[in-house]
Design goal:
194 residues; alpha+beta; tt1808, chain A; three-stranded mixed sheet
Amino acid sequence: MTVMTDRPHMLTEDFEAVARIAARAREGTRLEFIDGVIRSKAMPDGDHQTIIEWLTRICMQYRPELWLHGGQGIKAEAYRGGRAIPDAVLAPSKAFAGQGDWVDPDPILMAVEVTSWDSDTHRRDHVEKPRAHAETGIPVYLLIDRAKCEISVYSQPNGRRYESTHIVAYGKDVELPEPVGITLQTEVLKDWVR
């Protein structure tokens, strides 16, 4: 894949206008703009949503001052010219009030992705998103991979990539490092795979 760093497909402002039109024209169409390339994001299925619900309950129990915001568009990448829609982000409950469709990522403690079954899942969730979130400075990126039955925890962003990646199989406990500071018991995730 060619990354268009010198000449994106379009300006960020133009992308935002197209994304708004697509969302209104076909309910559920979600577009992202990473590395100057427009990508569509699959609609979540029932198991996907159940995993987000499971994670929301855990976050509420251990970090009640925070909220797991679902589907929030964020300004991504080093210069914030990208636009990403993580499945959820952990941030203070009113962190994005008044910001519109694409919010400043500074208050985000963790971005979350749950893999979908579309063909570009690996490239998007394992390559592009970790890089974009690390460039943005989001402290933790949690990837719940339903095809591999694994959880990847990326941490210690250095402005280009995450310096630490910890991968565990479903069924094992996994610690989300500070500033999140939650341990997930992942046995239940085995119920939500195909």
